[in-house]
Amino acid sequence: MPRTISIHSFRGGTGKSNTSANLAVLLAREGMRVGVVDADIQSPGIHVIFSHKQVSGARTLNDFLWGRCNITDAAYDVSEKALAGAGNEKSKLFLIPSSIDSQDIARILHEGYDVTLLNEGFKQLIRDLQLDCLFIDTHPGVNEETLLSIAISDLLLLLLRPDNQDFQGTAVTVELARRLNVPMLALVNKIPPGMDRQRLKEHVEATYKVKVGAMLPLNAEIVQVASGDLFVNQYPEHPFTRELKLAAKRLMA
Amino acid sequence: MLLGATQIAVSLLDPVKGHPIQTWEFDGQSLIRIGRGETNDVVVADPLVSRTHAELISDTAGRWRVVSLGRNGTLVDGEMVSDPMPVRHGTILQLGSNGPWVEFSEGRRASRGGETVSSISDLAMPEIDQELLKTEVSKIADCETFLDIQKQAQELRKAREES
Questions:
Q1: What pLDDT score was predicted for residue A211?
Q2: In angstroms, what is the C-alpha Rg of chain A?
Q3: What is the pTM of this model?
Q4: DSSP calls for A128-192
Q5: Are A161 and A188 in contact (CB under 8 A)?
Q6: Is the ipTM of this complex over 0.85?
Q7: Residue A64 phi/psi, 5° resolution?
Q8: Which residues of A touch B159 (CB under 8 A)?
Q9: A247 and A189 Cβ atoms separated by less than 8 Å
Q10: pLDDT of residue B161
Q11: What is the pLDDT of residue A109?
Q12: Please, which residues have CB within 8 angstroms of residue A119's CB and are 6 or more apart in sequence?
């Protein structure tokens, strides 16, 4: 299976962090050692879904990028809470959060960061934590750092909603990723009830020439659990969970 | 009771939340017909379901298989069922790619009341403005930064493969 997987959406609000976090949990449950890097340094958020509290002074991805620590010092084992008893003895889930301190965010925005170092960090994480797979939650849009994160991945997961704006923006990402020789898989999220799923799937695949890994329904329940618990744990029978399991299976194949 | 046939249940699942909304239980039956027609064992009144849509058949060893008969097909794990396919406890069958879901279970399963299956409307598919796409892509891909990224990515990937 692909080692380094970037997750990207052209616009915000597609449910990228939520989908990434839950997908990572599903893979870990299958006995994988999974890492999740919050590379959305400008607007971090995935730590909230894992109920990870950032205490003052605790290491983050920012500290690594500024040469203050090893990247593994910024990796937190969130397996216990995130897996909630599921999985097997091999299952592990690590989170590498980025700083929510506004001064830290401002500094990154102003200075940018060294992508070569970030690439080095990914390598170290995979090696030292013996990861089967590393998820990189990227910042929406196509800035330089995001493009580079995508470019060094083995797979790009594209998250999009079935509306015109997302469709147009995603087409740009697809075109750029293709020029960077990165394989892609699309996840369609927030599909409204009543939309023809089969037609939509064929439409997405024909438009982008990219396979669809999951067709995720618009999900009212996810709003209620958004900050505090993982959806796949709370709603194991939900159609959203079932579809996401298909994507996980596809990634492991 | 036929040899090998066991106690099983088929549940129609809520299309939004996924819990069972109606359950049919069978004891010692080795053929179960699913479809829209009134004569089926499991009657699913949905326009996307064929009159006779699928059959669950048990062999003498008590192993169950599904055979798809409907016009819209039957899916398991997102894949169309072509040949008779084994089902086990917890297998979810979708009757047509947009159709309702039913779950196969061994033993009995309690049902909870709920809503009925929703129908499919003809919502428009999102579209792309190809001209705009071309302009936007070339605005990014033709500038020096992108060419640098391409080059840098190649080197970084190579460095990773070597390690």
A1: 95
A2: 17
A3: 0.79
A4: HTT-SEEEEEPPSS--HHHHHHHHT-SEEEEEE-SSHHHHHHHHHHHHHHHHTT--EEEEEEEEP
A5: yes
A6: no
A7: -65, -45
A8: 119
A9: no
A10: 72
A11: 84
A12: A152, B156, B159, B160
Minimal C-alpha gap between B128 and chain A (Å): 5
Which chain B residues contact residue A201 at CB under 8 A? 97
∠ CA A36-A81-A56, rounded to 5°: 70
What ranges do the domains of chain A cover? 3-252
Cβ neighbours of residue B21 closer than 8 Å, sequence gap 6 or more: B11, B12, B13, B14, B111, B112, B113, B114, B115, B116
Residue B79 contacts A, CB cutoff 8 Å: no
Q: Which of A137, A108, A112, A113 is nearest to A34 (CA)?
A: A137
Residues 6+ positions from A82 with CB-CB distance below 8 Å? A21, A24, A25, A28, A50, A93, A230, A233
Q: To the nearest whole number, what is the mean pLDDT of chain B?
A: 83
Q: Give me the residues paired with residue A157 across strands.
A: A7, A185
B128 in contact with chain A, both atoms CB, cutoff 8 A? yes
**Domain A3-252 class?**
alpha beta
Conformational region of residue A156, where left means phi above 0, alpha means psi within -120 to 50, and beta covers everything else: beta
DSSP A5-41: EEEE-SSS-S-HHHHHHHHHHHHHHTT-EEEEEE--T
Residue type, A141: G
- Could you report the per-residue pLDDT of B128-163, keeping only the tens digit for each? 899 999 999 998 989 888 888 888 888 887 777 776
Question: What pLDDT is attached to residue B111?
Answer: 42
B window 93-112, beta carbon within 8 A of A: 97-98, 101
Split chain A (253 residues) into runs of 10 and give each run's mean pLDDT: 90 89 96 95 88 89 94 96 89 96 89 86 94 94 87 94 92 94 95 85 95 89 70 88 92 88
Rounded Cα–Cα distance for residues B67 and B71 (Å):
12
**B113 CB-near residues (< 8 Å, 6+ apart):** B21
**Distance from C-alpha of A252 to C-alpha of A189, rounded to nearest angstrom:** 20
A126: amino acid identity, one letter: I
Task: Report the gap between the CA of A53 and the closest CA in chain B (Å).
Answer: 30
Residue of B nearest to A208 (CA): B128
Tokens found for residue A237: 């029978």
Whole-Å CA distances, B69 to A71, B36, B47, B55, B86: 55, 12, 15, 7, 15
Which residues sit opposite A191 in a β-bridge?
A: A217
Strand (E) or helix (H) holding B102:
strand B101-106
Residue-level pLDDT at A31: 95
